[in-house]
Amino acid sequence: MRDCPKELDFISLFECIPLKKDQNENFLYDESTFIFTNEINRFEVKISPFYNSFSLLVTDLEDDEIFYYSLESVTKVEIVNDNKESKAIRLFIDQGIDRFIMIMDLVFRPKFKVVLKEVSDS
Q1: DSSP symbol at 62
Q2: What is the value of pTM for the model shown?
Q3: Are the CB atoms for 79 and 86 separated by under 8 Å?
Q4: Are 88 and 107 in contact (CB under 8 A)?
């Protein structure tokens, strides 16, 4: 990812310490897994900035799967909201298509929501 928040920013956003694939590796070159909940959902976010990889598993609190997405072409991640009432990020996904880019907004709090948009890259 050419632009990605720092590990501490994600810790603040998700309010948890990540599980790391390699404890000695720098966040940018490692795979980090953040596991957290809101009032009705459990989230598992895996981020590997060097490999442009991002995945999200959402279950209800009884572990029934609601949503799963695995992306290998995320070029940028932005934290949109990080406060007690609202937690949200924005992913920029480059699918190699000239003129267009996919933007995915993920809202974790107050209620889980996904918004996917295709926009002009100009």
Answers
A1: T
A2: 0.91
A3: no
A4: yes
Whether 79 contacts 89, CB under 8 Å:
yes
Cα(33)–Cα(52) distance, rounded to whole angstroms? Answer: 14
Query: Does the bond joining 110 to the residue before it have cis omega, within 30 degrees of 0?
Result: yes
Write out the H or E segment, with its range, that includes residue 47: strand 41-48
CB 16 within 8 A of CB 10: no
Residues 6+ apart with CB under 8 A from 84: none
Could you tell me the two tokens for 3? Answer: 């632009």
Look up residue 13 and give its two tokens: 């956003």
Dist. CA 24–CA 33, nearest whole Å = 15
User: Distance between CA 91 and CA 85 in Å, rounded?
Assistant: 20
Q: How far is the C-alpha of 9 from the C-alpha of 49, rounded, in Å? A: 14
pLDDT at residue number 122 = 67
Sequence-ordered alpha helix ranges (H) in the chain: 7-14
Question: What's the pLDDT score for residue 52?
Answer: 95
